[in-house]
Here is the input.
Amino acid sequence: MRDYLSCAAVLEERRQRADDLAMPAPRVLVCGSAFAGKSSLCQVLCNYALRREHTPVYVDLGRGSQQNGSQGLPACVTAVPVEHAADEEPSRRMAYFFGHIDWIDNPRLYERVVSHLSKVVLAKLNHNTSPEGARTASSGLVVNAPSQPTSELLGKIIDMFEIDIVFILDNEGLHASLSQMYAGCPKVNGVPKVEVVPLPKAGGVVQASAKRLRYLRALRVRDYFYGVMRDFHPYSVLVDLSDVQLVQIETAMLSASMLPIGQESKQSVEFIVRPFAGSVQQLENAMLAVVRANSMNEVLFAPMCGLVLVTKVEQHALQLLCPAPPPLPAQYLLVGDFKNLKFIDI
Here is the structure.
């Protein structure tokens, strides 16, 4: 904990220095071994920034199994300004639906979704004309890396979010790989553009079983609908299938003959939004994303309005558990890996 508090103190000094020199506030990426305390470190950094009257942006890149209200959601990548204690559900959250539990299930789609989120986050940090925007821009960014990432994926995340500090918990191999990757990076005011810092494993952290992780994911979904303090009252909404469009994202391989002239001849991966081809009965107890899109083509780039849980499938309708009253804010319901995103007895 002494090391973690020292990191929080250094980040505060860098915020003050960045404010004095009119530079961007520190942007931190937390990664490392599985069950090393990465989410706890993110919470420590965000809470201490909050005590200093900062509002850093917290980005969760796919954990989604924690009990804290500041954490993300299963199968989603999320960003939220830290404005209150962690035992409250965030009132403002930008989220994109990835549709899988782990990033390794579809790495290319995951990178695309993270890229969309990074553009929104960077735009938020660069918007400093209003007092609120200036406060957020001067507070910086804390990014919680996905579970068991590769150094190549972390390098892409660092570039997407313009990270300048990487905290690596209890992973010598990852530290060596990233240190070598950014060994020759230029310095800005005497500080490396990307600084890689090794940290020890958090005390008291224990490895969780697969059953425990499933339980935490289900608990996180329950918190989303009913609130961390069970003070929310979700709505049961009956939606006619003719009023919504069930869609899913599929991967398509483009051959060399279909590529523009001059482009590399190797196969290219594209993503296509198509109507859901499976049986509607399979979606019972599955979590779907309501996507803020006006057309099928916008689904790939649109953030989600929220999540809904299919509690019952009728002949021509879906019984949905919704966090907000009807009607639904959009007609497109994005289906992910519904086999692993089923939550019973929420």
Remarks:
- The chain has a mean pLDDT of 87.
- The helical segments are 2-20, 38-51, 107-126, 131-137, 151-161, 172-181, 210-226.
